[in-house]
Write a sequence for this structure.
């Protein structure tokens, strides 16, 4: 394993995380970062120097685009003419590939890899692991990967790179790009992030109605802990009759009858259009 990786956006928040993990691998890595602040960050935090685009792409086996979704299409179009056939272009999110923003180059490999992030049920005794909420540092996390186009043999290389940049790894799942889009933005953002935002608004409302703020936060987060453990079968248990009655009343009060339509292809595509 001595493939060359060209990492674009190496000085961004995600890019630095990837750069740090790649330092401990046998891959040869060229770091590309146009912003002076990002270049300085790489130098100060990791002691790494950036190179120009041409140098980075020369002989590259894998090109990782660690840049915002809105820039993927433009950057991919700019570098595609310089890539030799068989080069793997890896994105860290399914949005831009799903939206068709990658160039029409049938001779390139398109691969998507995205982390699940560490579970809220992280029972590791290591304080560093418990404190790693994002992943890619001390806490194990699962990852998802999709080979969008290219020979079947290319999947192994893409997954191997993904396991390095997101290490330490718990489990690795192979999906399609469409399935990845169901997970994000569908499941993780449209549903989970939205409902969590609503829960925060609800907490603020009970505070407005007189409950001490610290008490409301402790009460909500504590109940999120035990309720989540029961709902997701992390522990054996069942809700009380009172809780079940509250759910029966609360769900139609809070949720539209057709809310599951957020997972329909058209809804996912429109959400991704807004993102990209």
């Amino acid at each position: 394993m001595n493939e060359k990786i060209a990492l674009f956006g190496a000085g961004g928040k995600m890019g630095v995380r990837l750069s740090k993990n790649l330092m401990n691998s046998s891959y040869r890595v060229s770091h590309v970062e146009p912003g002076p602040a990002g270049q300085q960050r790489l130098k100060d935090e990791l002691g790494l120097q950036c190179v120009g685009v041409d140098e980075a792409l020369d002989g590259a086996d894998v090109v990782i685009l660690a840049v915002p979704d809105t820039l993927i299409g433009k950057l991919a179009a700019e570098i595609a003419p310089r890539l030799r056939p068989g080069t793997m272009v890896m994105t860290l999110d399914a949005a831009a590939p799903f939206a068709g923003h990658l160039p029409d180059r049938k001779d390139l490999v398109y691969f998507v890899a995205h982390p699940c992030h560490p579970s809220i049920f992280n029972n590791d005794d290591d304080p560093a692991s418990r404190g790693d909420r994002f992943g890619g540092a001390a806490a194990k996390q699962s990852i998802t990967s999709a080979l969008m186009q290219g020979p079947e043999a290319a999947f192994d290389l893409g997954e191997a790179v993904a396991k390095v940049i997101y290490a330490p790894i718990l489990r690795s799942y192979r999906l399609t790009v469409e399935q990845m889009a169901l997970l994000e933005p569908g499941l993780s953002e449209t549903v989970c992030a939205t409902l969590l935002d609503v829960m925060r608004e609800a907490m603020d409302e009970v505070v407005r109605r007189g409950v001490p703020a610290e008490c409301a936060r402790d009460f909500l987060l504590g109940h999120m802990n035990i309720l989540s453990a029961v709902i997701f079968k992390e522990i054996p248990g069942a809700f009380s009759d009172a809780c079940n009655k509250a759910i029966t009343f609360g769900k139609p009060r809070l949720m539209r009858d057709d809310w599951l339509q957020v997972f329909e292809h058209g809804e996912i595509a429109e959400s991704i259009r807004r993102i990209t």
Notes: The longest strand covers residues 141-149. The mean pLDDT is 97. Residues 177-208 form the longest helix (32 residues). The radius of gyration is 21 Å.
